[in-house]
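In this section we walk through a basic example: taking a raw amino acid sequence and producing a predicted 3D structure, encoded as discrete structure tokens. The instruction is simple. Fold the sequence below.
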Amino acid sequence: MNGEIKTGMKIKMMGTQNVYEVKETGIFNPKPSKVESLGSGEVGYVTCNIKNAKEVIIGDTITGFNRPSPTPLPAYKKVNPMVFCGMYPVNAKDYELLKEAIEKLRLSDASFIFEPESSATLGFGFRCGFLGLLHMEIIHERLQREYGLNLISTTPSVIYKVYETRGKSSQVDNPSKYPKTEMIDHTEEPFVKVHIIFPKDYLGDMMELCKAKRGEYVSTHFLDPQKVEVIFEMPLSEIITDFYDKIKSLTSGYGSLD
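The resulting token sequence is shown next.
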């Protein structure tokens, strides 16, 4: 990796093959500070005539347009979202603001994905994918706090792999896209291994709760005379909504989930 980026030169994004003119280069000191150029090994920012945030791929390689590199640098490993939900603006007029906000958030979060969707009840919004519940809550909070949006989020769901009777398979993250029952041969869903630590007095109740959530028992470990750990393999769909709250309620606040 070598060379430099100067104001006025043309650069090319190797992932999209888009060409832009550099309007400004700078460093963070800690506030943005303009400099003449950025050389190899320096950390800074580049301002270009990019009209849409969707044109930028996180981890892309920037090369000179006149003397391009033959191969790009290794990009980020793609991360597949595990939890999905719909996000809709309370005020339908804020749809474009929501679209612009999530496109900007996408620039700093490669694991966050979204696509437009519509609901007869909620109107126009976006189907968003996250790494987990915490990731979903952070994105929702940032959209409200940083962009002043008032949002409605649908109940989170997971992605299912559906095998149809005609031999075709597909990944479904939205209940509205689920095939008809007579067309389904079988379905696969994501499982997770959960470790639950709590006082031993609640062992019986905890085992019943996990089995009610379709959990498959793995093992039990007594960490000390008063504390026990149980391990279950459970469907992700069963624990993304109220499972943690039920553990806290069942153990008077002493239980923990990993």
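Looking at the output, two observations stand out. Residues 200 and 226 are 6 Å apart (CA to CA). The chain has a mean pLDDT of 88. In the next section we compare this with other chains.
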